[in-house]
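Lab meeting, action items carried over

1. Structure of the three-component assembly. Owner: GW. Status: complete.
Input record:
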Amino acid sequence: MEYSKDFLLNLYRTMVRIRTFELRAEKLFLEGKLPGFIHLYIGEEAIATGVMANLRKDDYITSTHRGHGHMIAKGGDTKKMMAELYGKVTGYCKGKGGSMHIASFDIGVLGANGVVGGGLPIAVGAGLGIKIKKSDQVVVAFFGDGASNTGAFHESLNFASIYKLPVVFVNENNRFASTARVEETTSVENISDRAVGYGIPGVTVDGNDVIAVYEAAKEAIRRAREGGGPSLIEAKTYRLKGHFVGDPELYRKKEEVEKFLPKEPIGRFEKKLFEMKILNKNLRDSIWSESEREIDEAVKFAEESPMPKPEDALTDLFVDDTGYDY
Amino acid sequence: MYEVRMPKFGLTMETGFIEKWFKKEGEKVQKGEPLLEVSSEKITNEVASPVSGIVKKIIGEEGKEYKVGEVIALIEEEGEKEEKKEIAPPSRKGEERIKISPLARRIAKEMNIDLSKVKGSGPGGRIVKRDLLPFLSTSTSSGEVTIEKLSGLRKVISERLSKSFHTAVTVTNILEVDFTEFIKKVDEKNVSITSGLIFVVSNVLKKFKKFNAHFDGDSLKIYTHVNIGVAVDTEKGLVVPVIKNTHSLSLQEINNKLKEIASKARSGALKPEEIKDSTFTITNLGMMATDIFTPVINPPEVAILGVGRIKKGIRILDNNTLSIRDMGFLSLSYDHRVIDGADAARFLKELENLIENPSF
Amino acid sequence: MREITFSEALGEAILEEMERDPTIFTYGEDIAKQGGIFGAYKSLLGKFPDRIFDTPISEEVIYGSALGAALVGMRPVVEFHFADFLFTGIQSITLQIEKIRYMTGGQGKLHLVLRGPDGVAQSAAAQHSESIETIFMHVPGIKIIIPSTPYDMKGLMKTALRSDDPVICFEHKRLYKIKGPVPEEEYLIPFGVADIKREGKDVTVVAMSRMVHESLKAADELEKEGISVEVIDLRTLVPWDKERVIESVKKTNHLVVAHETWKRAGWGAEIASVVQEEAFDYLDAPILRIGERNVPMPFSPPLEEFVTPDYKDVINAVKKVLE
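Predicted assembly:
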C-alpha cells in the first residue's frame, strides 16, 4: 500500500503530540499541579492515531479513562485539554469533569469515561441513533482488556450485532487492567476471538504498528459506514507506564517494562520513516520541538486561566432547572 | 404537692391582690370550693380550689400584691396524681420543659398568653393550637371564676390611670362637628346618639387601623376586630363595659347591646369578660355640662374619643349664610408615641364626614 | 369530556409526539409486537415500524444506549420492563445518564425518557413489585414524573418528550386500567407543579401515584367524621412543588406524606424534612409518613396486603396527627 509523505508525517506528528502531552502531564502531576489523578496513554499512541486517521469530523468515538490520546487524535485542542486537567474554567468541561471525563461533543468525542466499559453502551446508542436517522456516520468505541470482561461489553456487542449498528469496537489490549494481567483475568488469549460469539468479524493487530492499525480500522470503518454492521479489532500493545501516575507498580518488574521499550510505536515508526528517507534528524527534531512548543502554550494557557467560581458547581446539571432545589 | 398560683383573669392582667383567704393552713378543701378572693383592675373574683386536699401552706398574704403565676399556696392532694400533670407547670426556672407545638408556641408568644395557665390536650400533654383558643377570645377558663358584685378598688384604678397618663404621651385634638343630620337619622332609626357614634366610629376604625390597637411601649398590636368600650357613669364610679365586634354589628344590634350593658353597669351585674378587651373607647359626656375635655386614654389602647355637649350653635354654610344647627365638639385623645397629629386630624375629618353626612 | 384509560393516555401522548417529532423512537422488551406487557403501546402497533422495536434482555445497554442516541440528536423513549429492573442496568443510569451533562460542563442535551411500570400488583413478589423512585431523587441528574390519572399521564409525558433533560417516568401497574377525563385538545403539564386533587382545611396529605387514590378514599371517609383533608398530588418528584405544599401546611398546620415505596428513607422523609425546616412555626403536630413496611414485597396475598399501605393507613395517620 502506497501512502503519501504528508499522510505518513501526519501520523508521526500526531503520535509525537500525544507523547509530548502525556509526558508533560506526568511531569506536572508529579509537581503537584494537577488535582485528582491521570492515566497515561504512553506506548499506545499508534492505536488512537491509526484509527482516527480513518474518521471524519462528524464521526463519533467513546473513550476510556485513558483518553488523552483519543482526544488529541480526534482533533482536540491541547490548550483546553490542559486547562481541564488543571481544573480550570476554560477547560473542555469547565473544570467539572477532569481527565477521566474529558469530552467535546462538537468534535465527536462522546467522552472519556471513569467506569470501565461505561462507554460501550453509549457508543451502541450513538450507533442506534445514527441508524434510525439514516445517516452514514460511524462510531468507534475504544475499550481495554479489562472492559472486555464486563457485562456492558457482552451486552453491547450482542446489541450492536443484532441491529447491525455502525459501531467499530476497538479493544486496546495493553495487557493490564489496573494491576491485573490479562492472562489471569480473561478466558481467551485473543480478545478478538470473542467476536465470533456475537456473529461479528474480529481481527487482532499489532497495536504498536500504526500502519497495521490504520489498515485494520479502515476496513472495519468502511464496512460499518456501508451498513455492514459492527466489527471488533483487538490492538495488542503494552502499557509502558503504571495504571495511573503515582502507581507503585508492585505487580511487575522494571525489567519487564524495559523489555517492551524497544517495541514502542513511535520509535518503530520513526525508524521506518528514516529508512524511507521521509524523516531526517532535522525534521524529526523540529517536529518534536514544535510539539513541545504547542504543549508549552497549552500549559501557559491553563496556568493563566482562572479557576471556576465555587457557585459554578450548581450549574450545568439540567438544561431547564426550574423548581430544582440545589 | 399542688402549687396554687395567682390566676390570670384577662389578657392584660399582670398582678392581683389577695383580698381574703377562705381556708387556713391544715384545713381540708374540696375541688371547686372557694379558696381565696383576688382582686385586680376593676373586679374582685372568688378563686375556687383546683384540687381536693389539705391546705399545706399559705404563702400569699392578704392585702399584698402578687404577679400572675406566682405560687401563693400549697395543697397536699388526696393521691390523684394525674391531675397534677394535666396542668403543665411553667418552665420559668427552666426546670421542666413545656410540651408545645411550634404553632402553638408562636401564637402564645404573639398573643402574650401565659402558658402556665394553659392545659395541653395533645399527645403527652402537648399544648396545641386548640388549647389556646379560649385565650384568644376573651373568656378566661371557666369554672374558676365566679361573678361578684363590682367592688371598686380605687387604688388599682388610680394606678392604671396614672400609668397611662405618665407613660403615654397624650395629646388631644378637637373638632367641632355639625350633628343636625346625625340626630335626625338616629331619631328616625330609633337608636341613641351613642349607638350611632359607636357605629360610625367602628367604620372609621376599619380605615384608620392604627387607632384600633394596643401599645405596650414596645410593639403595636393592631386588631382587625373592633371592640368599643363605652364609659358609663355609675354610683360606684366610672365603668367601661365593652361591646364586642362592633365592626360587624348592625346599628340596631349595637343599640340593643348598648342598652343592655349600660343597664347592667348601673345595676352592678356586669360579668368580668364584659369589661375587658376593648380596642377603642368612647366617652360621651354629652349629657353633662362639658363641651371640650381631654379624656385619658384607657391603657393599653392608643386613643379615646370624647363627645361633648350637643347644643344649638351657629354654622356658616358654604354660601356664606348663617344657620342654626346642633353643634358639638369631638375631643380625640391619642398616644403621640404611635399616632401623629396629622393622623388624628384625618381620623376626625373622616368621623366628621360620617356624622355630617350620615348614610346608615 | 371523553374518558380514556391511563394506558391509552400514555399511548396517545407517545403517538402524538412521534407524529410531531421524527427524532423520537422507542424500544424496550416486549413492546413492538405485543404493545407492551400492560398494553401501553397498543395504539402504536403497526405504526412507525422503524421507530419502535423490541430488544434483548440487556438492561445496561438498553439504558446506556438511550444516552448515546440522545447525544447524536435523537429522542429515545426506553421502556424498562419493571421498575425493579432499573437496578439491573443501574450503572447506565446513575453513573452515565445522570452524570454526563454535568461532567462535561453542560455540553450535551440528554433528551431521553425512561418509562415503565412500578408498584405492587397481585402477588408479583419481591422482584417485580417495588417502587424505587427515591433512588433517582437522591442521585442528582434526572427528572422524575409520576402521574396518577390519565389526564396527568398524557400531559406529563408530552412535556417529557419535549424536554431537553433526561426524564424517568413511573406508572403504577394498578393505574393502567383506570379511566379519567382527558381533553381532545393538546395540553402540556409543566414539571414542578403539584395538583390539589382535593381541597381541605384540617390536614394536608401529600401523595403520588396509587397513594393519591388511597388518600382521596381516606378523605371521603374522614369527611363523614367532620375532618377536612387536603390532598396534594405532587405529580413530579424532581423537581417538586415545595411552594404549594408549604402554602397548604400554613393553612392546615398538619402534614402527612403517603407513598407506596418503603417508609424508611423514602422520599416522604425529604418532603417532611423540608417542610419542618421551612414551616416549623406553622406545625401543630409532628409530620407523619406512610410507606411500605421495611421488607421486600412478599408473595402470599395476606402478606402482601399487610406490608402495602392503603387508605386505612392514611386515615390512621390523619387521626393521629390531629390528636
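2. GW to write a short summary for the group page. Key points so far: Chain C touches chain A through 55 residues (CB under 8 Å). The mean pLDDT of chain C is 95.
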